[in-house]
Amino acid sequence: MLILTYFVMPNPFEMIKITFTWTFAFLFYFWPIVLVAFILGLTKFIIRKKLPNLFYFLNNRRSSYSETKVTRQALALYEALEDRNINCELEKWDGYKHVDIAIESARLYIEVDGSQHYTNKKQMFSDWQRSHYSKMDGYHTIHIPNRMIDNDVDDVADAIADIINKI
Q: Which domains does the chain have, with CATH numbers?
């Protein structure tokens, strides 16, 4: 019987009927499986890409902008950059954290750090996380010690201005 069906040409209308029947059966019976697979894929994307940012934001958010404290070093560097016609923003909120100085045109964040950023392991890990999330958003972060600003603010501002102008 199998040999006979192989040599007999099936009716084209019968083939269309079979095709539509199987398509309908697939759509009717298997759409929940396709939907679940789509939701699982979307969930995996959210967990891998967006959820870490949300947890970082929830754990490190400040209750209001007024709680941010601009250090005198960050303010000095900001003013020095403004004197060099660099368009920058002081204490920018990027959706996850406050950044000391942001230069949007260069996609650059500048963090002016005290000694605790180089000696405290929790602070070092927090800085690493902040830099990682900034990198995920397409921004580079430069960390400058307070001492550099206290001693050589003009040299630091000149170097940053040269970098910005070359980009």
A: 2-60 (no CATH), 70-166 (3.40.960.10)
